[in-house]
Design a protein that fits this description.
Number of domains: 3
Structural class: alpha+beta
Shape: rod-shaped
CATH class of the largest domain: Alpha Beta
Radius of gyration: 36 Å
Mean pLDDT: 82
Number of helices: 5
CATH architecture of the largest domain: 2-Layer Sandwich
Number of strands: 5
Distance between the termini: 131 Å
Largest sheet: 3 strands, antiparallel
Low-confidence stretches: none
CATH topology of the largest domain: Ribosomal Protein S8, Chain: A, domain 1
Strand order of the largest sheet: 3-5-4
Strand content: 15-25%
Length: 155
């Protein structure tokens, strides 16, 4: 084996090491770290969260989240379920991805605003009438008070 073959062999071994290391993960249990497969390490860090939706339909939000998750590298580890009767989403997967999808689901949960058919406020004619009636009443009360004070003082 010559020097060139030896270098190729070392390079091949390094590439194989990288492939093997990419398939490994680490789990910490009570201060002890274990080296396990990537899938097992990802499964150990799984979280499940429930999203209670108020306005949007759970099936619609589920469809949107599944599209977003499919583009993620950890998308295969994420699970999204919906219960249409309770209008609830159940997210399960790696901690960071579940939190990201939880926040996104809450952002997407909004009601479409509707415009009124007719204007209820301000009621211009009614408000103007009430204003003039109130000012006339206050003027009458003030006039009676002035008249009573003049009568008592003898003006």
């Amino acid at each position: 084996m010559n020097k060139r073959d030896l270098q190729r062999f070392k390079k091949l071994i390094d590439e194989e090491k990288q492939k093997v290391l990419q398939k490994l993960g680490m789990i910490e249990e009570e201060g002890i770290y274990r080296i396990v497969s990537y899938e097992e390490a990802a499964a150990a860090r799984r979280t499940t969260r429930t999203v209670y939706l108020e306005d949007a339909q759970a099936a619609d939000i589920k469809k949107t989240l599944e599209q977003v998750v499919s583009a993620s590298p950890d998308g295969a580890l994420m699970s999204i379920s919906s219960n249409d009767a309770a209008n609830v989403l159940i997210l399960s997967g790696p901690d960071s991805l579940v939190q990201e999808m939880f926040d996104l689901a809450l952002e997407l949960d909004f009601a479409e605003p509707t415009l009124p058919d007719e204007s209820l406020y301000p009621r211009r004619i009614r408000s103007t009438g009430i204003f003039f009636a109130a000012t006339t009443l206050l003027f009458g009360i003030a006039s009676l008070m002035v008249a009573a004070i003049r009568e008592h003082t003898g003006f």
